[in-house]
Amino acid sequence: MEASEDQIYVIIFATIFLGGIMSTFVISMVFIHRQRQAQNRQKMDQIKSEHEKTLLNIENEIQQETLTYIGRELHDNIGQLLSLAKLNFGSIKPEKQSEGKEILSQAIQEVRGLSKQLNLDWVETLSINEFVAQQLARIQNTGFCETSLEADFELLDLPKDQKLVLIRVIQESLNNAIKHASPETIQIRIHESGNVKRILIKDDGRGFDASQDSQGSGMFNLRKRMETIGGQFELSSAIGKGTEITLTLPN
Amino acid sequence: MDSKLLQAFSDWFTISTNLLLIIGVVFFIKLPKGKRANIQYWLPFLILTFTVFYENFGAYTNYNYDLKKAVNAYLGNTEYPKFNLWLFNIARRQVGVILYLLLIKTWLPPSKKKYINWMIIVFISMACALQFSGIEPLYYNQPIIFALGANLILIGSGLYFIGMITQDQFLESNPLRLVSFWQMTVIMFTFSLNYISSVALLYLFAVNPVLGSSLQQFSSFMWICTLGVLTVTIASPLIPKVFEKEPFYKSYGP
């Protein structure tokens, strides 16, 4: 074989080799891209299923909380009203009979009000402001501590999943304040700075050292839940100085 | 009509490029005004027009020997008056490289666009330095400038492919239905195979003219493929069922 023939083969093979390398490169890029797409799809499915699971848990917890409240109401309020009505109907005096009727209709109204809370339809009709006001009124009525609500705007038109999470996080934050902080006052402020909407839950209770991670999974769960709807959960507290929770709503 | 003139323009490559330009012009006129103002459509059209212009001019120089001789003499080349390399050096290997780099830039994520700017600056500086110093005169083969240009195009295409596998914007896209993907693939193949062919061409024509001619035909075929993809790019908004929206598409009105 002559030298020039060798060189021609080198040129041919070099061209084929270069073409092969580039083809392999492009095909590998497409293959890697497809793999990444599949991984991303899997990740998105996982996030979606986690989100659905969180929402289901929240719905269960809200229902559990509602049932506890209804049980308490049946025992402390409606039960008392019915006993009183029974006593009045046992009397032969006509005024006692009519008083008994009034008490009975009051009991019926209370039962109607409670029955509405048995399913989660109330979540859709109630605004966050109304829910917060109701919760604070309940706390205030027990005489546990003073409460106040300050709102710069009405939180309407939130998607149901966001509303459920917010309701549960607010409920849990208030429960924590009542159970652990023994505050004199609980304040809730709904405000907006720029385009960012925030809910501030503040108590003047005993507080705790927020730098120590001793809050178990409670705070972690609240933070995680806010993140599932694209919001944020921030907590600041110090011993003897109360606790401040800021819920940043998703845009 | 002069038969020599007809002969100069009647090879398959010149006819194909002219046909592609006609199709490109039709599609470009049909594009909505907003799309025509978008660099992702007018730049391919500009490259197509520019390429067809210099290819036709190249064909004309083969007909008009006096013009070729006069330009060569003006550039200082009296040894090879038949060469029209000056035209292809300046149009395809210098301006063409810059235009293709700009085209690659339009498909890159914003964070990677600055690399292309630097590549263009380096390429212009090196090309000027090599030509003005006399190392690679304009009228003769310019392997260094072409190697530099081809490598920059390869790096640019590589940046696009890296972006494709790392940027989240590409996750929703099927690359096989993106015009940018086909552009980058064809540009990468054309420039690298053309580089090999241009380096080996003078030697092959001397030793094995048949193989040299085949390699040149293959190179011409790759240029046609590139121009074909550019024409398809211009037509792509009119066939949305075939092509997907580009991840880094910029809207310029309706």
Automatic annotation (TrEMBL), chain A:
This is Oxygen sensor histidine kinase NreB. The keyword Endoplasmic reticulum does not apply. SUPFAM superfamilies: ATPase domain of HSP90 chaperone/DNA topoisomerase II/histidine kinase. InterPro entries: HATPase_C_sf, HATPase_dom, His_kinase_dom, Sensor_HK_TwoCompSys, Sig_transdc_His_kin-like_C, Sig_transdc_His_kin_sub3_dim/P. Residues 69-251 form the Histidine kinase domain. Residues 41-68 form a coiled coil. It comes from the Bacteria. It comes from Algoriphagus yeomjeoni. GO terms for cellular component: cytoplasm; membrane.
UniProtKB/TrEMBL annotation, chain B:
The chain crosses the membrane at residues 12-29, 41-63, 115-132, 144-165, 186-206, 218-239. The keyword Membrane applies. Keywords: Membrane, Transmembrane, Transmembrane helix. This is Uncharacterized protein. It comes from Algoriphagus yeomjeoni. The lineage of its organism: Bacteria, Pseudomonadati, Bacteroidota, Cytophagia, Cytophagales.
